[in-house]
Amino acid sequence: MLKSTKVFGAALLLFAPTAGYAADLYEPPIIEAPEPLPPIIEPAAPEFGGWYIRGDVDYHWSKLRGTEYITYGPGAGGLRGGTASFDTTDLKGAMSLGAGVGYQINRYLRADLTADYWFKSDFNGSTSGTCSGGVPCVSTDTSAYSAWLLMANAYIDLGTYHGVTPYVGAGIGGAHIKWDDLTNTTPDGTTVHEGSSNWRFAYSLMAGASYCLTENLNLDMGYRFTRVNGGRMFEYASGVAPGFDKGFNVHEARAGLRYQFGGNTNCAAPQVVTYDPPPFEPPVYK
Asked: What CATH code is carried by the domain that includes residue 81?
């Protein structure tokens, strides 16, 4: 019995340090670092805005909305007044040139001030009446008008698709109309009425599209309708006048270039901001 107790005690002393050493050799499970995440790319908020200049060339067709002139003749108590109008009127098409300065407010809105010069549109008209001897006759009337058009305009850009930006717009301003002398020819002879010039109210409606040639340069093509109020057309001569036109409807086919100085444009490539995730730090075991 004593011998067995000694053997058990010796075995216990031998096992105890071995178990403690085994506990010291414990290793935690290996945790693998996750794969690094790709950079996060988000579009940067574009800073739109910038001054631009523009130049345009167009061909326009004008149509008179009516004419009227005063006539005089003998009657009781002196001169008797009346009014008449041209039987026929026709205005030929003509070229025009324009320039302007504007500001791109944001991606969808811009505004500019423009000045256009309309070259002379030839006028041909006719009237009917009575010539010498009470014989009915028809006159031939010729003149021409030119104009300066000054407008304040606003446009809505409708988005950019493969470099093309459609837009609509409107403008308000004034037109300085200058009529050449009116030459009235009948079988009785020729009468020249001095042409008049005056400022008139005008407004415009536009539609078109621009195309990105470079980041800052656009080719602009479109249509503009302009309505000009009526005004004095020619002065008194030989018992007739003054004469008045009742205004114009003008249709324009336009093309031009628009260059923006600085700022972001609809033609600029999208800007991006890259965020790199923080580096992975493995856990520390103590």
From this structure: 2.40.160.20
